[in-house]
Specification:
The chain is built from no helices and 28 strands. It is an all-beta fold and 354 residues long. The protein starts with a strand and ends in a 15-residue tail after the last strand.
């Protein structure tokens, strides 16, 4: 699929008919091939004058380059015969057989090494030192001038927020902020359970990615709930505290690009005890600031509310719509339409919307 001049690979959800982009980075993405076990997708993309072969972990969205200087793709052409010669995974899923430089090669996925079929060739590759710029470390305390994700405890006595990448709590109205955790990762998007005894939050680091955590409040050891590293945000407990709904990113940051995450995320839920999460539905970022969805359960835990865009038609201004779905993503209903609203949240009893 070509979107604004960029070739994209998209995924069709055969359960609800929704089509979501998997790629969207500079250089396009064409000729997808799925590994025999269904966990990995290979494709080629253009980087300047070269065509690269890359593989993506479909669970986490992480991307790994396998080979450069592949047979040149034909993204700029009319693609009457496709945009890239056919290639395939080996039956064991450990290698890819593809053409490059007029020859056929076997590319090993674990090491990135390639073996010619059936002849040998010598390749010289020049590596240069990467550019590093020294930076001066801070020598004194830093005053936080912005707090993010502020949330009050259910009893209204405590404020929890993220500042300078970590979570802090303070007594209201004028207490002294104190750190809640001791991790080195970025911490954000705190959310209380209905009884105020548990706090959910998400983390991120550039090496491993992020996870969803819970911890006893006002103090305790954080517990990691998610099993797959990724981008997570905006967790919200069900009324009975048994489930947490949250937003998951597409993994574009692992691919050094945020374009896909600026457009789409997934809404998922997970048992508050941890384990595998369940896919609900795709959520498109809204408005010029690309705001993420803020999903929430209803009082029964049987529906999930969130806000999304409703495209304008003709002279009509764009609308923001409040919708809900079942936890399996079905039975989507539209409840309210607003003009240029940024956020909307449903009261615990389901009678009011702010």
């Amino acid at each position: 699929n070509v979107n604004e001049g960029i070739w994209q690979i998209k995924r069709l959800d055969r359960w609800n008919g929704q089509v979501l982009p998997i790629t969207g980075e500079f250089g396009g993405a064409v000729a997808p091939a799925i590994s025999p076990d269904g966990t990995t997708m290979a494709y080629v993309r253009r980087v300047r004058a070269k065509t690269l072969l890359e593989v993506m972990d479909l669970a986490s969205g992480k991307l790994r380059p396998i080979a450069t200087d592949m047979q040149r793709d034909n993204q700029e052409g009319f693609a009457f015969h496709g945009v890239f010669p056919g290639y395939a995974f080996t039956p064991d899923g450990a290698s890819i057989v593809a053409t490059a430089g007029g020859k056929i090669w076997k590319f090993d996925l674990s090491s990135g090494e390639r073996a010619p079929i059936p002849f040998t060739a010598k390749v010289d590759q020049t590596l240069t030192d990467s550019l590093h710029t020294p930076r001066r470390e801070g020598v004194s305390d830093v005053r936080a001038r912005i707090v993010r994700w502020p949330v009050e405890s259910p009893d209204g006595k405590t404020l929890v927020f993220s500042a300078l990448g970590h979570l802090y709590a303070m007594d209201l109205p004028g207490g002294t902020p104190k750190r809640l955790t001791t991790t080195n990762d970025l911490e954000y998007a705190p959310s209380f359970s209905k009884d105020g005894r548990t706090l959910a939050f998400t983390t991120w680091n550039d090496i491993d990615g992020g996870h969803l955590f819970t911890m006893p409040f006002p103090g305790g050891t954080p517990k990691k709930l998610t099993t797959i590293p990724g981008q997570y945000a905006n967790p919200a407990f069900s009324a009975d505290g048994s489930k947490i709904v949250f937003v998951a990113g597409s993994g574009a940051t692992f691919r050094n690009d945020d374009l896909v995450d600026a457009l789409w995320q997934e809404i998922r839920w997970i048992p508050s005890s941890g384990g595998p999460s369940s896919y609900v539905i795709g959520a498109k970022n809204r408005g010029p600031n690309r705001r993420m969805a803020r999903p929430q359960f209803d009082a029964t835990g049987e529906r999930i509310y969130f806000v999304e865009n409703f495209d304008a038609t003709g002279p009509n201004p764009p609308k923001t719509v409040l919708v809900s779905v079942k936890p399996d993503g079905t039975d989507k209903r539209t409840h309210l339409r607003f003009t240029r609203a940024e956020e909307a949240t449903v009261s615990p009893d389901g009678r009011w919307v702010a």
